[in-house]
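User: What would this chain look like folded?
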Amino acid sequence: MSLRRKLVCSYLLALAGVAQGTEATELSPVEVRARTENLEGIAAAGSEGVVASQRLAALPLLRPGEALEMVPGLIVTQHAGDGKANQYFLRGFNLDHGTDFATWVGGVPVNMPSHAHGQGYSDLNFLIPELVERIHYRKGPYFAEEGDFSSAGSAHIDYFRQIDGTLAEVTAGENGYARSLLAGSPAMDGGRLLYGLELFHNDGPWRVAEHYRKFNGVLRYSQGTRLDGWSVSGMAYHGLWTSTDQIAQRAVDSRQVDRFGSLDPSTGGESFRYSLAGEWAGRGAQSQSRASLWWLHSGLDLWSNFQYCLNDIAATGTCASGDQFKQAERRQAAGFAVAQSLFDHWGGFAVENSFGIQGRFDRIQPLGLYATSARHALATVREDKVKQTSLALWAQNETRWTPWFRSIQGVRADAYRFAVAADLADNGGKAGAHMLTPKLALIFGPWRDTEFYLNYGHGFHSNDARGTTIRVDPGDGVTPLGRVRPLVRTRAYELGLRSEIVRGWQSTFALWQLAADSELLFVGDAGTTEASRPSRRYGVEWSNLYVANDWLAIDADFAWSHARFRDAAPEGGHIPGAVTTTANLGITVDRLGPWFGALRLRYFGPRPLIEDNSARSQGSTLTNLRIGYKLSLRTRLALDVYNLFDRRLNDIEYGYASQLPGEAAPVFDRHIHPSEPRTFRLTLSHRF
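Assistant: Here's the prediction, encoded as C-alpha cells.
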C-alpha cells in the first residue's frame, strides 16, 4: 500500500471512529484517546484536532456547552440564566454567544445568523454529552470547507451511531438539580436506531430560583459507517427558565442585593429547537462522496434587564417600568452540502482533489425587540421579517510532493442575499454581497514523529441582515444610522507544530495572527448597529496530552493572545472582553481497581472592560473534581464537585453605565455574574 493510501486509511479511522462499540468495551479511555486523537500526517494545521468520546466521558461538566472547553484555548461561561446560550472566548475574541466560531451538531449548524439576541447565537443546551462520539475542531480560516462564523475556529460535534447496551442514568444534586437520561441503540432492519431522552431541572444557587427545566431528545437511524453509509437524525429540545442576569457591583457592595441576587426577578426565557437531518457517504476505490440535508425550526423569547432604570428615567423622569426588554424570534431554516474527493496521481505525485457546494436559507418571522415590564409588553421597538440566503462553492487540492512535504491549496466563494421587511419602512429593503477567500497550507514532515505547518487563509463573518438595510434609529424613527457591510473579511497566518517525540506525549504548538476588517455589531438590545474598528490579534497556543500508562492521562492546554484595534482613537485601542491568557489542566485516572476519576483546573485570565484598559476584569481559577466507583462491570457511581475550593469568582464581568432606582444619574460600573459556589452532584449509571 502506498504512503498516501496509508495516510488516507489513517484519516478514515481517526475521524470515523470505526470501532465504536468494541473500543468502548475492550479498551480503557486512556488507550482509546491515544489511538484516536493523533492527527499526524492527516491534519492541515497544528491547531486542528479530534476529541474522542472517552475523553469527554471523564469530564465533570457543569453545563453541556462546556464540552467545547476540550478545544484548546476555548473558554465557555455564562452571564445570565443557564437556558441562554453560553458566552465563548477564543484567540483574543470575546465571541459573545458564537460569532466567529462555527459549531455543528449531528450535521446541523448551531449558529443563528440575524438572531434576536446576537449574531451567530449558538445555544448548546440541547447537547447530550453522553451521546457525543467525537468533536472535530479547527482553528483559523484555513479550510475551504468552513464558511461563515469560522474565522476563529469551528467544531463539528457528532453523535454515536451505536452505543454499548442501554444506558440509564440519574443525577441528583444541590439546589434542586435533577437529571435523568435513557439512551440505547437497538438493531433494526439491518441498521441501528440510536435514541436518547433527557429530562432536566435546576434551580441553581440564585436567590430567585432559576427553575430551569428542559426536555431533550435524539433519534437517529443509521446503516453502514460514517464514510460508507447513511443516517437520518431528529432532535427536539424545549427549555424554560428564570434568569439572574449580571448585576452592578455597587448594588452588591451596598448590600442592596446579594451576590447571587437579582435586580429584576422577572427576567428569563423560553426556547425550543427541532431539527431533522439526513447524511449519506459513499466510498469508491479512488473517491469519497458526502451529502447532507437538514431542516431546523427554532424559537426564543428572552427577557433581559441590564441597565435597570437608565432609559426609563431618561424618558419619564422616574423608574416606573424599568429597562426590561424582550427579544423574540421564530425561525425556519434549511440547508444542504455536497462534497466529492478524488484520489489520484499527477506526474507521480499523490493528489486529493476535493470540491463541494453548500447552501442555507433562513426565514425569521417575526424578529422582534420589545420594551417590557415584568414580562408584560409596553411597546414595540422594532419587529421585522427577514429572509437570508447563502450559497457557497469550494475547491481544494492536496498534493504530496515528497514523503516529507505536502501542500493544500483551496478557494471558497460565498454569495449572500438579505431581504428585510421592517415595521419602519426606512429600515427595510434588500442587500447582497459575495466574497472569494483563498486558503493555503504547507506541511513538512513527519520527522521523528514531528510535523510542521505553515498556514495562510482568508475568512469572513456575516453581519445581521437588519444592519445591512437600516437607515434610521428604530427608537425614534429619525436619527440617521449607517448601514453595515454584509460580509466582513478576515485574514490569518499560522506557524504550527505537532509532535510525539516522546512516546505517549502528544503535543501541538501554534503561533498565529488574525486581522479583521471590522468588528461591526448589530446591538440586539437597541435594534441598532454599533460601529467598531479594524482589529488585529496574535498569540501562541500549546496543547499537550500525555498518556503515562494504561490508567493515567494528563492534558494541559495554554493560550496567550494580544488583541488591539488597528487604528487610533481617543477612547483607546484595547478590545473589550479580549482575554489574554487561558489554561486548562486535567488529570484522568482509570483502572485503579474499581476507582476512576478526573481533576480539572481552568484559568480564565483578566480582560479589558473598556477601550482605554482603565477597567479590567478579574482573572479566575476554577477546579472541578470527579470521583467514581464501579459497583459492577456495568454499574457506576460518580460524585462531581464543582468549584472544589469554593472560590469567590465571577463567570463574567462587563463595564458599562447603568442606573439603579433612586440614583440621580447613570453610573459606570463593573457588572458581574458570579460563578456557582462549591456544588455537589451524584450520578448513578447502569448499562443493560
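Residues 295 and 334 are 4 Å apart (CA to CA). If you want, I can go into more detail on any region.
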